[in-house]
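Late entry, written up from scratch paper. The run itself happened at the end of the previous shift, but nothing got recorded in the book at the time, so transcribing now.
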Amino acid sequence: MALYIIGHNGCGQLGLKHRTDLFNLTNWNTTNPNISITHINPGFEHTIFTDKCNLYYAAGINDSGECGLNIYDACVPTCSQVKYFSQHQIKILKICTSVSNNYNTFWISNENA
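Output as recorded:
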């Protein structure tokens, strides 16, 4: 399955290893050939991606830790794996990013972690 993207990329939220806006449709899989995306949760300037193995990846603004990467870089332009849930064997039921307030990501689980 191919993922095509276009638009604002000022904080690297498209996960393409750069922060340049895209004015033409671009095949995301060319930059990330080993990640097969099945679901996308876009935030205001960050994005959470889910792959076919239910692993989670994040890219974009992270100055408040909203990417869940346990690093505090202002911008993460590379699609980076969110390892917390796989390391703690927590199954996520739903992810909700906030478009109106770009500093939040909510991860819903039925686990009592």
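The chain has a mean pLDDT of 89.
(Scratch paper discarded after transcription.)
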